[in-house]
Amino acid sequence: xxxxxxxxxxxxxxxxxxxxxxxxxxxxxxxxxxxxxxxxxxxxxxxxxxxxxxxxxxxxxxxxxxxxxxxxxxxxxxxxxxxxxxxxxxxxxxxxxxxxxxxxxxxxxxxxxxxxxxxxxxxxxxxxxxxxxxxxxxx
Length: 139
Fold this sequence. Notes:
Layout: H1 4-31, H2 39-65, H3 73-96, H4 111-138
Keywords: Membrane, Transmembrane, Transmembrane helix
């Protein structure tokens, strides 16, 4: 059974997918040459867009099953919110680290990507272990 908080978060995540959809429109403008970008920016924009979509959908999947995990307190919070946090930070790192005219390398905001990676990894490990423990306890 999903908690009220999980249901609300799933609703927010679904609405966030609309922003990914509009980002897809932006990418069609980039690849058609209507938005001047260099190859670094184009690659990072594509990566940011893809990560946003995949991580939002993964967040919803985790929230749908996390109630079966043997987790509580901080660990349940981490397993439930770590991937949505990564869904914000990782794309932000991709997009914001290549702003400006013709950047030759990512700027310091690339750190957002790595903080997102840490949140994603911690959440996946916690959710995975919690769900395995919950499954074993239910046997």
